[in-house]
Task: structure prediction
Amino acid sequence: MVNAEMSQATLPNLTGIVDANRRTDLVMAGIGISVLIVAMSLLAAVVIDLIVGGWPRLINPDFYLNFPSRHPLQAGIVSAWVGTILVMLVTAGIAIPLGVGAGVYLEEYAARNWITDFIEINVSNLAGVPSIIYGLLALGLFIHGFGLGETILTAGLVLALLILPVIIVSTREAIRGIPLDLREAAYGLGADKWQTVRLYVLPAARSGILTGTIVGLARAIGEAAPVITIGALTFIAFLPPSPIQSSPPFINFEWLESPFTIMPIQMFNWVSRPQAEFHINAAAAGVILMLMTLAMNGIAIWLRYHLRRQIR
Amino acid sequence: MTQKSFHDQHVTQLSPKTEPTPNTQRESLAAEVRKLSFWYGETQALKEITLSIAYRKVTALIGPSGCGKSTLLRSFNRMHDLYAGNRYSGEICLFPENHNLIDLDPFMVRLRIGMVFQKPNPFPKSIFENVAAGLRIQGVQNKKLLSDRVEQALRDAALWEEVKDRLSQSAYGLSGGQQQRLCIARALAPQPEILLLDEPTSALDPIATAKVEDLITEIRHRFTVIIVTHNMQQAARISDFTAYMHLGKLIEFAPTGELFTTPQETLTRDYITGRFG
Ligand SMILES: Nc1ncnc2c1ncn2[C@@H]1O[C@H](COP(=O)(O)OP(=O)(O)OP(=O)(O)O)[C@@H](O)[C@H]1O
Ligand SMILES: [Mg+2]
Result:
């Protein structure tokens, strides 16, 4: 009897609450979707505009194989895309080991004291420094200080510095996300710190680390400012020496010291020309640059999926 | 001769009733805790615990939540040393050397004393690599030795039949109960002197629990086992000795039958009759 009365009294109330919650959910979902639509359509507009604008050049194979030229219809992006790939190789080769190493050190080994705190604050702050400042640093340090010249190596170094904070921070977060009981399991078997990190923590954290790395590289690939600051050429009619050769030792590193250009600089150069034909080239180069970024993200997604399947 | 029958013979030889040799100290004790106190920073969690761990027997630690069972268990393989601010005083002597393991290198201690945790925590690796982990950490490279030990450990953990065809598959594909037995196999593979189990069945269903209890009963003649449990029936079923703890102190320690039928202390009696805890 009492029970029946209670449910009589509370039931309508409950339905009211549930309904109100559902309404709030609907409103929030509506707002979310509209924001998403606005953002996506803006992005789509930019992409479509670029594709339409650059179409005549995009469908021309010469565009991908030709060097830049004074004649818009003969100008191509071969030196730019090769330059971009080589610079990114250097950037990845330097930033990934340094960044992951620093992240592991800070998270696992560093003593908790003011020096560590100081380093941590500065790493986070570095992520917010404008990229042109990195360019100035590189101009002063790498070019005037070390005499490295306006080379692929210098560009790779400056972009590596630029994305180092991103990689460090995401490595730390990925490591911190590894549950304590996994570590205890390893230590419980007698593993020392380095074994625990190398055999269990890093493999479990690799998909998070990878994501951070790709986000960093995707940022680096579109950066023009610091590379312009160190004096990358805008007009270049030759390719760097090939990293691979047919005679032993089969690889060479002369390309590191070669002058170069990269996609964003090539684009910038074409945009700033008065002739409208060059703007077509710029749009086409923009599409390719975007595809390169997308491809990198695609690789990241594929790798993550693959790695996750491997460990699950 | 199959593994099983060999195992059975082995068991009969060592079981207390048929064992003809008198107990030397080595035969009777695996370790002895002497006046062990432990602090988490300022909080004292163990107060002058004194307790003997019988060689190749199952010792159960029971007591209300927060009484320090896990703290005591984790002292045995120096897990507390992973976190700053923890402090021990007193001794845990390992026999036959009679070394105080509080003074030994914690990494060496953990090579000799294996641990299984409350929640199954397999590594994100294959079943084989999970079990081989301890051996790999010790630097064992020999393929034959690795696969022999892995098979033996999986058999000991009563998991071999279920996983022998999928050793290279991920451990995360196993059920919770299988994962826990995998963790037991992982702890057994390096053949530890003492196996620590911290509520190993509290996350498992009754059938999986029964399997774990059975396997503990099977291996008790070859390993010294210390088990923390909230389940008094479980302690009664599988242990030879039981220690009852309360607020960081050891209240009573006796052969399991005696402790459950004729407890000497009021606190113990209240706990096992369910009046408290
Ligand atoms: N990391 C820690 N820092 C501070 N105090 C702790 C820590 N871990 C445990 N304690 C305290 O130490 C005491 C003993 O804890 P312990 O985990 O050993 O209890 P337990 O007997 O295993 O309990 P349960 O049955 O709930 O697992 C408790 O009062 C607990 O609050
Ligand atoms: Mg506990």
Notes: Chain A has eleven helices and no strands. The mean pLDDT of chain A is 86. The pocket of adenosine-5'-triphosphate (ligand 1) is lined by residues B 40, 43, 45, 63, 65-71, 230 (CB under 6 Å).
